[in-house]
Design a protein that fits this description.
574 residues, alpha/beta, Alpha-D-Glucose-1,6-Bisphosphate, Chain A, domain 3, TATA-Binding Protein, 3 domains, 5-stranded mixed sheet, 18 helices, 41% helix, 18% strand, binds 2-acetamido-2-deoxy-6-O-phosphono-alpha-D-glucopyranose, binds zinc ion, AMG1_II, magnesium, metal-binding, phosphoprotein, EC 5.4.2.3
Length: 574
């Protein structure tokens, strides 16, 4: 580390909001962009150290604040195989940021302690001196914050030589693209290939999609649906545009030779950062249960005939979430939401069907475990549908992708996880992959389909683009209309409210956030209230990990009862 340079660049980047207290939250650091410089600098430093600590594997940095408003931004670190930062390093990230926020002396003291404690060797650099890939979403503050990260990485310049840590500025891309790029880079490294660019993302996912088209005889331009994608005026639209144009150029089954009219992107003004997530995007649609700006109701919705089905979906600002919906007429009550729970149940039904067809279940010693991971926010009827109708296993974890992902990997060979808000993916164990590969030669279509899905779904993290393609493929293969999908079960009416309290940290939960252990006695009162609302009722309270507030969720057999239950529990909390 070049100490002279470090001090100079610390002074340049870390003095504008001395004393600010940072915390690595559910999905990294996330604040108003004006207070982020210090934490950008320390995150840059930490990611190089993490890279050296992991024998020089490539680490990712994503600059984004997802569905937050345009004035916010944030940063998170991505591990070599594309996972979220190891949880034991989250507090290190927090402590390093806060030491820098205090003073240069505190920063250097903590930095030295960290380097020593982790045994990070900055002297013998024969293996390299760290390798980092940085990506950002379309926010206005992105380029400025990127500069700070680059400054930090630059401090690792080795003595007076030109050797510096390797850093790749991957530009504007979606969060899941960055995760995927980091993963592919590390795989390529072990294969001793040269650096790869984001082209690998498009190559891999278009290949998988086209393989499915070929296997089932559908084509991108002759989908059974007219699909409108609301890109939240974020980076997802711009990347999706690239994907679509590739899919159409590569698709060999072009019949009319014309371009598609059945996939369109709205809210695609990613170059106007002040429009980001404004009255559009997955979070807006899920929260308000209505169409976003720019999507008109499908008044000409027709239930019969090919190519007349209309379906919409919304991405969030960094395109790691997707939810679907349709509305048959102007009447708001005809708005039908197909959220993360519905995506889970659709994939669960699909893989159950494929496994039956594949013959893999016949050999009992295969013992293939398929299951769905949800959070407390999953609609009670979705859980019932999975366990009672599909007769599949469900597990519940605390909110936050890292928890769901971990559970899906630990417990299942095919682990399907989605938060109700649309963030999720499917993970396939090495065991199922090799079972599939070993039996595939017999021309079994179901096996081939599973194999393609292991490539169509982004293995690293929830990905709006890849999940969307997955859903479209399932609807085509199972020959389901959006209404069929919607009619598999009916949601219990529910209500989510936010309560601002003096200190949200006193709200501590257990049992995957479904019960409070603190404040003492509160859970008893909630239980009492819930039982007075009848059998289908449920409510839970948890402190938000991204906002200074407490969230109250309630569901019951009618909309009025769900709303009243949420309100009453809210009163108990405040
Ligand atoms: C973050 C999480 C998201 C979770 C949300 C909950 C990731 C990548 N993102 O956005 O999964 O649903 O936080 O927010 O893990 P809350 O704690 O404010 O309710
Ligand atoms: Zn997001």
């Amino acid at each position: 580390i070049n100490l002279q340079l470090l001090e100079k660049l610390y002074n340049k980047n870390c003095t504008s909001n001395k004393g600010f207290k940072y915390a690595y939250g559910t999905a990294g650091f996330r604040y108003n962009a004006d207070v982020l410089n210090t934490v950008m600098f320390t995150t840059g430093i930490l990611s190089v150290l993490r890279s050296i600590y992991l024998q020089n594997k490539t680490i990712g940095i994503m600059i984004t604040a997802s569905h937050n408003p345009p004035q916010d931004n944030g940063v998170k670190i991505v591990e070599p195989m594309g996972e979220m930062l190891d949880q034991s390093w989250e507090s290190i990230a927090t402590d390093l940021a806060n030491s820098a926020s205090n003073s240069y002396n505190d920063f250097i003291t903590y930095l030295n302690h960290l380097i020593k404690d982790k045994g990070i060797d900055l002297i013998d650099t024969s293996n390299g001196i760290g390798s980092v890939i940085v990506g950002r979403d379309s926010r206005e503050s992105g380029p400025r914050l990127l500069e700070t990260v680059l400054d930090a990485v630059y401090c690792f310049q080795h003595d007076s030589t030109e050797r510096v840590s390797k850093i790749l500025d991957a530009g504007i891309l979606t969060t899941p693209q960055l995760h995927y790029l980091v993963y592919k880079t590390n795989v390529a490294k072990t294969l001793e290939k040269n650096e790869i660019g984001i082209g690998c993302y498009f190559d891999d996912f278009t290949r998988a999609w086209l393989d499915l088209c070929e296997l089932y005889g559908f084509s991108t331009e002759h989908l059974k649906f007219a699909l409108t994608i609301d890109a939240a005026n974020g980076v997802g639209g711009f990347q999706m545009e690239k994907m679509i144009s590739l899919l159409f150029t590569l698709c060999k089954t072009t019949v009319d030779g014309g371009n598609s009219t059945n996939i369109s992107i709205v809210n695609n003004d990613w170059q106007k950062p002040n429009l980001l997530n404004n009255k559009c995007g997955a979070d807006y649609v899920k929260t308000n249960q209505c169409l976003p700006n720019g999507v008109v109701s499908n008044s000409k919705f027709s239930t019969g005939g090919e190519n007349t089905q209309k379906l919409n979906c919304s991405f969030d600002g960094d395109a790691d979430r997707v939810i679907f919906y349709y509305q048959d007429n102007e009447n708001k009550s005809s708005f039908h939401l197909l959220d993360g729970d519905r995506i889970s149940t659709l994939f669960a039904k699909f893989f159950q069907h494929l496994l039956k067809e594949s013959g893999l279940l016949d050999a009992s010693d295969n013992d293939i475990k398929v299951g769905v991971v949800q959070t407390a926010y999953a609609n009670g009827n979705s859980t019932k549908y999975i366990t009672e109708v599909l007769k599949m296993d469900v597990s519940c974890t605390p909110t936050g992708v890292k928890h769901l992902h971990h559970e899906a990997v630990e417990k299942y060979d095919i682990g399907i996880y989605f938060e109700a808000n649309g963030h999720g993916t499917i993970v396939f164990s090495e065991k199922i992959k090799s079972l599939v590969n070993n039996s595939m030669s017999n021309g079994n279509k179901a096996l081939k389909t599973i194999e393609i899905f292991t490539r169509l779904i982004n293995r690293t993290v929830g990905d709006a683009i890849s999940d969307m393609l997955g859903v479209l493929a399932v609807l085509c293969i199972l020959n389901l209309t959006p209404q069929d999908w919607y009619n598999e079960y009916s949601d219990l009416p529910n209500k989510l409210i936010k309560v601002v309290v003096p200190d949200r940290t006193v709200f501590k939960t257990t049992n995957a956030e479904r019960q409070l252990v603190s404040p003492a006695g509160l859970q008893g009162k909630i239980d009492e209230l819930v039982s007075s609302y009848g059998a289908d009722s449920r409510s839970f309270v948890r402190a938000s990990g991204t906002e200074d507030a407490v969230r109250v969720y309630a569901e019951s057999s009618t909309k009025e009862m769900a709303e009243s239950l949420a309100e009453k529990v809210g009163q108990l909390v405040s």
